[in-house]
Amino acid sequence: MQKILVPIAGSPNDEAVLRHVVRLVLQGNALEVHLLNVQTPFRWHVARFVPRHEREGFYREQSRDALRPCRERLDRARIPYTVHTAVGDSALCITQAAHRLRCDRILMGTARKDSLVRLVEDCVVNRVLELTTVPVEVIAGTAVSKWERYGIPAAVGTLLAIALAD
């Protein structure tokens, strides 16, 4: 039985990963599915004013909300799974969980983005690929918006042209 870790961010891209997991199981693959939701911790200047038990309750509630549609989908498909939650840096928590659980691979969803957009943004998928030795399978999710497809490259091109003109 193959162990897979499926990070769930509560985004539309999670649906593409879950469709892939269901497809794998229907094809006869024996999978041990581990869902992981990672919550970003409050910044220190905010955290110092919020008691620990309230922060922990907030993180639990946010994780529950992010995982609910995924759990419902897997329950409908009668696919067993285990839920894990963490608070911290997403890429680091994902790689640590994959190592701790001895997963055979990590399935991650990502939006379809332009190469230039991926170059300028901090992407969890890229950071996981850098940090882990566990194979990562990236499942394409939603398409990029028109702003990401045309606006960002045009803005970067304009900035480069201005910088070169000086």
From TrEMBL:
Residues 1-138 form the UspA domain. It comes from the Bacteria. It comes from Ramlibacter monticola. This is Universal stress protein. SUPFAM superfamilies: Adenine nucleotide alpha hydrolases-like.
